[in-house]
Specification:
Elements lengths: L2 E4 L10 E8 L2 E9 L6 H5 L7 H5 L7 H16 L5 H32 L4 H30 L8 E2 L2 E2 L5 H27 L10 E2 L1 E3 L10 E3 L4 E2 L4 H4 E5 L6 E5 L4 E2 L2 H8 L5 H10 L11 H22 L15 E9 L2 E9 L5 E7 L1 H20 L4 H14 L11 E7 L1
Parallel strand pairs: 2-16, 6-12
Antiparallel strand pairs: 1-16, 2-3, 4-5, 7-8, 8-9, 10-11, 13-14, 14-15
Helix pairs in contact: 4-5, 4-10, 5-6, 6-9, 6-10, 8-10, 9-10, 11-12
Length: about 425
């Protein structure tokens, strides 16, 4: 007997996807996660455009991670043109991307992930009992937003960062004010990490390896090599390791590492770099008894919460160190070149690759978002997790799969290219 069940789109993620599941005699025979977003053609739009238009175009891939795309795009174009940014520029860019991470993590943890754990439909429904937690979320989100306005010029699609520098600089008073607000918001970040440390997670191990930036002494952000569980490679060699593939029933590309799925996210970053966390973040991690490295996908929420503490601390450190002064954008000559940029954005690695001709026109563009890299890992995780939960009702199975996918904090609409489940049972 065959049974088919259709479940409406998954909520509380960015974009949409469909999951096809085929079960025979209680055994999962097939499981395919496909994106059904409309094609977006950003890479095609880049061809023939000027070198200085790349970051403005690609930032529109995603509103949530627009700053991440801007900084990655700028980094790739600087690589192509041979531009070396100043130390101040690097600090300002780091603060700008941290601001986006604080906002994104707070949004995901409180408004998308926590309702699942506490049994609520939304964060709004949590307010009568968990008002303090929702206020903490809004405090952190507003702080991240305000930092982005200060450093980027507006809340999304920043306009102040540029190839070779910044167009406008924050005042010392503004930096000092942000530092004071960060110091005050530290308690909210710590409370968030302690809250997520207490939340139970399923006993699960992903069959996939991980990948993140790795630079000794810090949690990878903009620079470093690429590191998995047992290998490291240079960013310039990424094409030897990573390959984009496309499947006919999906509008999103998949990325595989040496032919296999991998995950890239906050958990991947902590797997490689947890020894470099700030002291307070390290204390919370130790008290949680969570052992790293880990392949338990459900721990990515906790990893994001730990990162909140670390990056609030890192922002305070940078604000104390930063003495902003006006700098001219670096002089450089337009020439033919090939550049690669890769940074860590909230959801994982973001890649941009460009080729430009001698006139500064883009002849090739390639963008790999975290979600397109994680798609295959999500698929493999669902296959591995389903046998553990087949004993439950279909509604409970759907909820568990949703929690698994949401742990990745996916953005299917950003897969330059949520859950309907189709069951086939015999």
């Amino acid at each position: 007997m065959m049974k088919k069940v259709n479940v409406d789109h998954l909520t509380k993620i960015e974009g949409h996807a469909t999951l096809h599941v085929k079960i025979k005699n209680g055994v999962v025979e097939d499981c395919r996660l496909t994106s059904i977003e409309g094609s977006r053609y950003f890479e095609g739009m880049l061809k023939g455009r000027r070198w200085d238009e790349a970051f403005e175009i690609t930032s529109r891939i995603c509103g949530i991670c627009s700053t991440g795309h801007i900084v990655t795009s700028i980094q790739a174009m600087e690589d192509a043109l041979g531009v070396k940014p100043s130390p101040q520029t690097l600090m300002l860019r780091e603060l700008l991307t941290i601001a986006e991470r604080i906002r994104s993590h707070a949004t995901h943890l409180y408004f998308l992930a926590l309702p699942d754990h506490l049994g609520y439909e939304s964060a709004i429904a949590m307010i009568p009992k968990y008002k303090k937690q929702v206020v903490s979320a809004l405090t952190l989100m507003r702080l991240g937003n305000d930092m982005m306005v200060l450093l980027g010029g507006r809340e999304m699609h920043a306009v102040q960062a540029a190839v070779g520098g910044f167009r406008k600089f924050p005042s010392q008073d503004a930096i000092d004010d942000v530092r004071k607000r960060l110091e005050k918001a530290k308690a909210d970040a710590v409370a968030t990490a302690k809250l997520f440390a207490k939340l139970p997670v399923p006993d699960f191990e992903s069959p996939c390896d991980w990948l993140s930036l790795y630079k000794k002494g810090e949690i990878g952000m903009h620079y470093g090599d690429l590191k998995g569980s047992d290998h490291t490679f240079k960013r310039k060699d990424f094409a030897k390791w990573l390959k984009e593939t496309h499947e006919s029933d999906s509008t999103a590309n998949f990325v595989v590492k040496k032919g296999k799925a991998y995950f890239t996210n906050a958990l991947a970053r902590l797997n490689n770099c947890h020894k470099f966390l700030s002291p307070d973040a390290k204390k919370i991690l130790k008290a949680s008894k969570v052992k790293l490295p880990s392949k338990n996908t459900f721990l990515d929420n906790f990893a994001q919460a730990i990162e909140l503490v670390h990056y609030v601390d890192e922002s305070i450190r940078l604000c104390k160190k930063l003495k902003p002064k006006k700098e001219k954008i670096k002089d450089f000559k337009i020439k033919a070149g090939h550049g690669i940029g890769v940074i860590e954005v909230p959801r994982g690695l973001c890649w941009h690759e460009y080729k430009i001709n001698k006139n500064g026109e883009i002849t090739f563009g390639n963008v790999m978002t975290p979600t397109c890299q994680n798609l295959r890992a999500m698929n493999e995780d669902i296959k591995a997790y389903l046998p553990q939960i087949l004993k439950y009702s279909e509604s409970r199975i759907q909820l568990e799969i949703e929690k698994l996918i949401r742990a990745y904090d996916p953005c299917f609409s950003c897969s330059t290219h949520f859950l309907k489940i189709k069951w086939d049972k015999t």
